[in-house]
Amino acid sequence: MIDLRSDTLTIPDRSMLETILTAPLGDDGRLDAEGRGEDPTVNKLEDMSAALVGKQAGLLCTSGTMGNQAAVLTWCRPGDTVLVNDLQHLDRSEKTAFDPRFGQMKKAVYHLDENFQPATEEIEDQFRTGSIKLLCLENTHNYTGGTCITEASLKKIYDLALKYSIPVHMDGARLFNAALYLKVPVSQLCQYVDSVQFCFSKGLGAPVGSVLCGSKEFIKAAKETRKLMGGAMRQAGIIAAPAIYALEHNIPRLQEDHDNCATCAAQLQNLKKVIVQKDVQTNILMLDVAQTGITPQEFCARAKAKGLWIRPIINTSVRLVFYKGITRQDALNAAAIIRELDAEL
Ligand SMILES: *Cc1c(COP(=O)(O)O)cnc(C)c1O
Fold it and tell me: What pTM was computed for the model?
């Protein structure tokens, strides 16, 4: 079975797991005067992460969801309006900030243009209303197929945000995929946002965790938010150690995932009914099955019967995600299965 459901399916290898055995540990929930916890491995990861994205401080979170929601709940209060993209993960999938039981925030929406860049006129129109308290971006953008917001777009948006004094949070669950595609260091992208979250548990291949980065003051407040969410941990160095290993070893290999994704897409030209994502940029490939006469669920069930495990993602699309452990041959075989399925429709 070729399993392309998500890049969260990476399994830690032995050398990654071995880092846990020798990591110095302590109680991360016990804070010193500076607000730092007592687990040296967590502190090392948070400092490494902050340095990579060019921010003052970092905060280890159990998941990308917690990282994003801790950010929104720190920037905003109940009743505040948060400006999100119409297909943003932190709204569509996570929801906490907008849930009447939790964040109780209001939502304003902007769209992406035909080049998958946030529509700046829409954003400025929203800023002009005077009610927006936070702008959220997503890079790479999951539901449009791993597309990237360019440095030029980020700069343009940040200039607007500065003009209207509105903070910007970036959901960078796959930030390193974006930086790789755009050929710029992550810090160069992140200079145009006030807070950023990225995941260790996706393409970077660690089993658990994400980090939220921002100014010292912001991270201090976010740490309190994380505690309210039940996210303060103890010997979390056992999570941080594999994440450090991921940062030290697994960033350059993301190119392999991008190459495998492109290889698969290249094999899917001239299909009869399945519409293949045109501008494949990173490790995600979307197939629109609207014209196939079957539901996305049925399409995935038929693919699974042929040895390819994929899943519906949004509207009429199904998603293929390439990650560590998926080979070029897997990518070719996956394409062959999709071609065969398309021919049968
Ligand atoms: C996966 C993902 C998240 C959340 O990460 P979890 O660790 O699964 O909570 C957030 N944003 C995007 C774009 C994602 O793809």
Answer: 0.97
Query: What's phi and psi for 175, nearest 5 deg?
Result: -55, -40
Rounded percentage of the chain residues whose pLDDT exceeds 70: 100
In a mutational test of the pocket of ligand 1, which residue from 72, 143, 171 has the highest number of ligand atoms less than 8 Å from its CB? 171
| Distance (Å) of CA 53 to CA 137, 192, 212 | 16, 11, 10
Average confidence (pLDDT) over 110-137:
98
Specify the length of the chain in residues.
Answer: 345
The CA-based angle 12-171-95, given to 5 degrees, is 100
The span from the CA of 322 to the CA of 325, in Å, is: 9
Beta carbon of 147 within 6 Å of any ligand 1 atom = no
Structure tokens at 79: 């009743």
For ligand 1, say whether the CB of 7 is within 6 Å of any of its atoms: no
User: Amino acid letter at 105?
Assistant: M
Closest CA to 73 of 165, 118, 128, 136: 136
